[in-house]
Amino acid sequence: MGKLGIFAIFLCSITMVVPLVFGVAEGPKEVEEWFHRVSNHHHSNQKVTKMHFYLHDVLGVTTKKVAKPNTTAKSPTFFGETFMIDNPLTVGPSQASKLIGRAQGFYGFSSMEEVRVTVAMNLVFTDGSYNGSSLTSLGHNPVLQPKCEMPIIGGSGIFRLARGVALLNTYSHDDIKGNTTVEYNVILQHY
Q1: CA 74 → CA 55, 144, 170, distances in Å?
Q2: Which residues belong to the signal peptide in this entry (predicted)?
Q3: pTM for this predicted structure
């Protein structure tokens, strides 16, 4: 068998092995089949996953102000001020600890009466068994409170159809620089 034949066998092998290794169907037909399998098994295949990590909100570096209405300067709650984020997620509280992903999205000060933000973000995992998967969180955060609960409303990859909760705890905050490290304890159900 010549080089071309060996190469053809190699390509066929890769084509068969890659879906087995990555394990998540991505085409419309495959996703539809996946939904049918989930529906047929109802809740018997649900998994519960617990995760623990830290988010580092570094103002001006991984968090950028993108909107500030003229009225914000007069508002004691910073109403209307909006930020885009691409914050690192790490295993430990130090920014130098192992990077496992990024929190990407935005938050804006959304209350005229309290210092509170509405957060829309994806927790995109780039390491370990969750690599290539993400969780989506959407909710409000009363930022002056040391603890907060944020809903997990969806996910992708191995977290497809995820729902759950992220319990946030302010680990550290620098009033002068505006930088914050937040501890995340996530509990979710998914298929």
Answers
A1: 30, 19, 27
A2: 1-23
A3: 0.78
